[in-house]
Design brief:
Helix content is 20%, strand content 37%. With 180 residues, it is of the alpha+beta class. It is globular and about 40 Å long.
Length: 180
């Protein structure tokens, strides 16, 4: 029995995550790329978000708040946006994954120290997005005051709070803060 418990202790988190809705949303080749490129983070699990947020999302048919997919580059293949929790400390990384013919192209968009239990990613439809008037625009890498997106992108934010909209424009990720 002691050896069985020890064996369970050393298994990676992913072994226990089989069947988790978030893990199931990540194709195997993308899982492998994420593990290689971001060894300090792990795949998100549905249980990483608060039970209240998870129940609310399930009512709308969303089993995972930390992974979203859409064809953001118009090539007919689903791309992804993920919140990867830190494997060692409290924090997370936002990663965009483009499904290219030669394999997944990963971009780390942000890294935060702090809680992720109320975070979400979702598909942002094509359209016009403008910086919210609630805050002054603060220039930072990739930030824009407005964007007219012809293809879908991703919302990233906290449930019932502020969010940014990320879009791939000319092979570069830009974001605007349209939701307060």
């Amino acid at each position: 029995m002691k050896f069985l418990l020890w064996g369970l202790w050393i298994l990676p988190v992913s072994a226990f995550a089989a069947g988790d809705p978030c893990v199931e949303m990540v194709p195997p080749a993308l899982r492998q790329s994420l593990q290689q490129h971001f060894p300090s983070e792990r795949l998100p699990l549905s249980t990483d978000v608060s039970p209240v947020d998870r129940r609310q999302a399930m009512r709308h048919g969303n089993a995972c708040l930390l992974v979203a997919s859409a064809d953001v580059d118009g090539d007919g293949r689903a791309d992804a946006m993920l919140v990867l929790p830190s494997g060692k400390r409290h924090g997370y990384r936002l990663v965009a994954a483009i499904n290219a013919p030669a394999g997944w192209q990963l971009t780390s968009l942000r890294e935060w120290k702090g809680a992720y239990d109320h975070m979400y990613v979702d598909v942002a439809p094509p359209g016009n997005y403008r910086q919210t008037e609630a805050y002054d625009f603060t220039p930072e890498p990739g930030a824009v005051e407005q964007i007219s997106a012809k293809l879908p992108g991703f919302y990233v934010g906290q449930v019932e709070s502020a969010a940014d909209a990320y879009f791939l424009e000319q092979r570069r990720w830009v974001h605007v803060h349209p939701i307060d």
